[in-house]
Structures are given as C-alpha cells and as structure tokens.
Amino acid sequence: MLGISRWAGTGGSYRTILRFFHKVIPWATLFWLFFRKHLFRANEVYLLAGDEVVISKSGKKTHDLLANFRLLNPDSGIIDLKAHYRGFRYVNEVLKMLPEIPEPILLNQIFAKLTSLGRIHNVSTSVELS
Fold first, then answer.
1. Spatial contact of 118 and 83, defined as CB atoms under 8 Å apart
2. 21-to-2, 24, 53, 69, 113 alpha-carbon distances in Å
3. Number of neighbouring beta carbons within 10 Å of residue 20
4. Measured at the alpha carbon of residue 50, what is the angle toward residues 48 and 55, in degrees to the nearest 5?
C-alpha cells in the first residue's frame, strides 16, 4: 500500500489509503444504484448472475490442492488446476442430466478430454476429437 500512496498526490498519505481499504463498501447496493441510474431500460429483459465466492480464499488450502495435483502432473500450474476442476465440475453437471451413465471407459475418456481443455501445459490423452 505504500506504493499506492506514492502516486496518490496531495492529501493521499499512507494512512488515507489504509482508511480507504479498511472501510466496508456495500458493493451490491452501489452496483444496483449504478445500474438503475445509468443502465436500466424499462423495456429490456435482464439476467442477474452472481459469483459463488463471497469471501477471499487466497492462500487457504490452495497450496495443498496444487501440491496434490502436481503429483500426477509435475509441469502443471494454477491455471491448469483451475481448468481441470472447471472441466470436472462441468462433466459432473452434465452427467446429472443424462438418463443413464455412459460406460466407465467412455466416461474416463470424456473426463480426460474435458478436464484438459483450457490448460497451459497439455496432458497427453489417448482420445482423438472427431
């Protein structure tokens, strides 16, 4: 924060920056007021979407996930981990909608292919896209 205060100009001391970041800002209310004032049109249809993360998880158990993931994928990084779990979650959600579960060998191939999408360090899979 000391680096931020250097660029703040007159009246922007280190203490001012601390006070700003210590203050609780009602973001939901602020965004709603901004939307109503500047973006809302009465004849339009809007879709409200939210993020499931409401508390910062930085540094809490992330290193454990990455360490365990790197046992099988030594060249992988955090982006590869995120891509893997995003694909895994997607496949699980799609499987819930299917009337019957595919055979285990096909299921393993689907998981292998979809969990490798979006990775930086590719994992060799024996599945070919057609």
1. yes
2. 13, 8, 19, 34, 43
3. 13
4. 155
Q: Residue 58's pLDDT band (boundaries 50, 70, 90)?
A: low
Eight-state DSSP code of residue 115: T
Buried b (16+ CB within 10 A) or exposed e, 75-88: ebeeebbebbeebe
Measured from the Cβ of residue 4, the count of other Cβ atoms closer than 10 Å reads: 13
Residue 126 is classified by DSSP as S
Contact predicate 52/86, CB 8 Å: no
From the number of C-beta atoms within 10 Å of its C-beta (0-12, 13-18, 19+), residue 115 rates as buried
Percent of the chain clearing pLDDT 90 (strictly above): 10
Going by C-beta distance under 8 Å and a sequence separation of 6 or more, which residues neighbour residue 45?
Answer: none
- Model's pTM, two decimal places? 0.45
